[in-house]
Amino acid sequence: MADQSGNGEREIANMATEDVCMAGEITTVDVKGLKELDEFLKNLPKHLQRKALAQANLAGAAVIRDEAKLRAPVRADARAIRVGKNSTKATLPGFLKASIRAWRLKKGSTSTVSHAVGVSGKAYYGKFIEFGTRHISARPFLRPALDAAYLRAIDAVGKVLKQKIEREIAKQARGK
To answer: What's the CA gap between 94 and 74, in Å, rounded?
Structure first.
């Protein structure tokens, strides 16, 4: 199904949809193609379709997540943040980087699986760093990560999807 140049794996990934969440803003990378892949997936049971697409798409989101972690700024010192009236909490260097996650978005149709990559948890300030405020200039790290890693993400989706398809073909050939 894939050619020797490596482009086949990218083509296999062409039906995946991946959303990248950047502090409340979602950018969708929607790559389409390969009618044979689409037909093959339609012949699989619905739960296998969803599982294969979800695992493949998560692999692509993980590539973008890892790139974003590399690009996220790290504060050189710990800083105290006021939590309540009388208490503070220290934010350690690297907290933003550690808060970058990839997660699956709400389930949709069987042919679409979406994952988001962004800052989660108590590192809410990631959006201020990404987009800036009137007091601080923007230091984007999520969008540049997407721009730098989207081809590697598509390749990762293709590799996982190819493995899942080959495994299913082998099962069908054995008659299981």
So the answer is: 5
Going 42 to 43 to 49 to 52, the CA torsion angle's sign is negative
175: left (phi over 0), alpha (psi -120 to 50) or beta: left
- List the Cα angle 53/55/57 in 5-degree steps: 65
At 40-74, the pLDDT tens digits run 777 777 777 778 888 999 999 999 999 999 999 98
Could you tell me if residue 2 is inside a domain?
A: no
Q: What is the pTM of this model?
A: 0.70
Which tens digit of pLDDT belongs to each residue from 105-162? 876 665 577 888 999 888 888 999 999 999 999 999 999 999 999 999 999 988 998 8
Which domain range does residue 151 map to? 7-174
- How many distinct structural domains can be found in the chain? 1
Write down the residue that tokens 């208490």 correspond to: 87
Asked whether residue 1 is assigned to any structural domain, the reply reads: no
